[in-house]
Amino acid sequence: MSDQSSLIIAGKYRVGSKIGNGSFGDIFLGTNITTNEEVAIKFEKNNSNHPQLLFESKIYVILRDGIGIPRIHWYGIEGEFNVMILDLLGPSLEDLLKVCNHKFSLKTVLILADQMISRINY
């Protein structure tokens, strides 16, 4: 995936810059070439010993319409990757922590805790 800018997924999503990664694979910024809507595109090698992306996509479908739950636009296989395209929600907690010099105020922690409990209760 060295030249992602020309890569089109599912016939309508252009892969942009890398915005994150994890043990499962990489996350890229994507754009719907028809509507210009920005999305997140997750890639996972389809020969992974412990594939997670299909399971993750099914969980999002079950939880759809919940506040803070991304909508799945597409899931499938492209070449050697399992790919999931979903709503781009905003900065991660890690990104926010960097902005706050690696320390959240008590107020921020309480707001985050309230939001997390609401998501779990949903």
Q: What does this molecule look like?
A:
GO terms for molecular function: ATP binding; protein kinase activity. This is Casein kinase I. InterPro entries: CK1_Ser-Thr_kinase (IPR050235), Kinase-like_dom_sf (IPR011009), Prot_kinase_dom (IPR000719), Protein_kinase_ATP_BS (IPR017441). Keywords: ATP-binding, Nucleotide-binding. The protein is globular. It folds into two domains: 86 residues, Phosphorylase Kinase, domain 1 (2-Layer Sandwich); 32 residues, no CATH class. The model has no long low-confidence stretch (mean pLDDT 92). The chain has three helices and six strands. Strands 1-2-3-4-6-5 form a six-stranded antiparallel sheet, with helices on one face. Strand 1 and strand 2 form a beta hairpin. It has 122 residues and is of the alpha+beta class.
Q: Would you tell me which CATH topology of the largest domain applies?
A: Phosphorylase Kinase, domain 1
- Count of DSSP helices? 3
Order of helices and strands: EEEEHEEHH
The count of DSSP E runs of length 2 or more, i.e. the number of strands, is 6
The domain tally reads: 2
Indicate the CATH architecture of the largest domain: 2-Layer Sandwich
Largest sheet: 6 strands, antiparallel
Averaged pLDDT: 92
Structural class: alpha+beta
Q: How are strands sequenced across the largest beta sheet?
A: 1-2-3-4-6-5
The poorly predicted ranges are none
Instruction: Report, as a whole number of angstroms, the end-to-end distance.
Output: 37 Å
Estimate what percentage of residues fall within beta strands: 25-35%
Helix content bin? 25-40%
The best one-word shape is globular
CATH superfamily of the largest domain: Phosphorylase Kinase, domain 1
Q: What is the top-level CATH class of the largest domain?
A: Alpha Beta
Radius of gyration: 16 Å
InterPro entries: CK1_Ser-Thr_kinase, Kinase-like_dom_sf, Prot_kinase_dom, Protein_kinase_ATP_BS
GO molecular function: ATP binding; protein kinase activity
Protein name: Casein kinase I
Keywords: ATP-binding, Nucleotide-binding
